[in-house]
Give the backbone structure.
Amino acid sequence: MLKILGKASSINVRKVLWTCAELNLPFEREDWGVGFQPTSDPAFLALNPNAMVPVIRDGDFVLWESNSIIRYLVSQYGGQALYPADPKQRARVDQWMDWQATDLNRSWSYAFMALARQSALHRDAASIAASCQSWTHFMRILEQRLEQTGAYVAGGAFTLADIPIGLSVNRWFCTPFDRPALPCVAAYYDRLASHEGYRLYGRNGTA
């Protein structure tokens, strides 16, 4: 059976859990990370030298990096509807997944740690303001995209790209700051709630 190593509160672990839900794929999960088994443990480092969750073990196959993991799972376990074979359609999915992992993630990192997690290491007011401003900029890009598609980020159908984007949108709504009204993003947030995986691992009170 597929094994997932990582605590369930991690946004990157939740990408994998939600993907498994979409695929009806059974798994076993072990708690690793802050508050649980330390990822500095030599046994974990042997699987991922970066000491980061998640890691999966699928038989004798070991893989880390959350977006790589979810791409593997849909390719291995019949998720073609989530990750199309057509090169242009697949590239569109990859584009938005990579955007979430780079531009969007970098924008909200400081503000989220300061305002949602109340991190003592993230107390600089100027840095919080700059992060909120950058985050809002990228969320407006998402708003424009969803206005174009009227549904999901890669087009009219739910795809793998909506898993990392949807989890980031959950953080947007769970972080207390003065957010602008983004009606297409709000409708998207509600639309994703039709997916049990999102209700279990995304919009479940955990940011």
User: Anything to note?
Assistant: The domain at 87-201 is CATH 1.20.1050.10 (Glutathione S-transferase Yfyf (Class Pi); Chain A, domain 2). Residues 87-115 form the longest helix (29 residues). The longest strand covers residues 2-5.
